Amino acid sequence: VLTVVVISSVIMIIGVGFRKPLLHLIFGSVEEAVMTNAQMYFLITALSYPFIALFQAGAAFYRACGNSKFTIILITTTMTMKTALIANVANIVGNTLFIFVLQMGAAGAAISTLISRALCAFVVFYALRKPGYAIQLKNYFSIRPDLNLIVKILAIGVPSGIENGMFQFGKLAIQSTVSSLGTAAI
Predict the structure, then answer these.
(1) Prediction pTM value
(2) pLDDT band at 73 (very low <50, low <70, confident <90, very high)
(3) For residue 74, what pLDDT is reported?
(4) Among the four residues 24, 78, 89, 113, which has the most C-beta atoms within 10 Å?
């Protein structure tokens, strides 16, 4: 958890700090309104990187225990939780509110994404506090780094992340090519 927070926070800071040059590198010269919206969207969604990373870490705890679906008590209702469903519903509701009701455009879409990712992270870590699971996290401030364990985990995770990143790079290359066609063509 500590490693995930540190790495995702560093990536978030890099993304926020270099969002303009990154977007210009990827999309080149697009219309100014498109670039302004892209920069705003990137800024807000970059703030969600630690939340999505924490969600993935929490979900990995459940998968490690052989429990990719889990049941929690949430406001007097027992619900089988598939966090993807919660994230998507929260995102759809948020998009409707922020984009169509509050007329916030790209910023509204980004805020909805940020909220849905934060919601998932909080729900997963709230559930990890419940007794009865093989892995429980209760006192977050007592977490201390175990460098040997971190190195072992990163030895598995980094190659997997690179493989996934290469797939995402391919998608990014296609998007970059399409963006060069101009807003009207898109």
Answers:
(1) 0.72
(2) very low
(3) 40
(4) 113
Long-range contact list for 24-32, CB < 8 A, 24+ apart? Answer: 26/172, 26/175, 26/176, 26/179, 27/175, 27/176, 27/179, 27/180, 28/176, 28/179, 28/180, 30/179, 30/182, 30/183, 31/182, 31/183
Handedness of CA 62, 68, 74, 77 (dihedral sign): negative
Rounded to whole angstroms, how far apart are CA atoms 78 and 140?
25
Distance, CA of 82 to CA of 113 (rounded, Å): 17
Exposed/middle/buried for 95, CB within 10 Å: 0-12, 13-18, 19+?
Answer: middle
pLDDT at 164: 79
E-assigned strand segments in 42-184: 70-74, 77-81
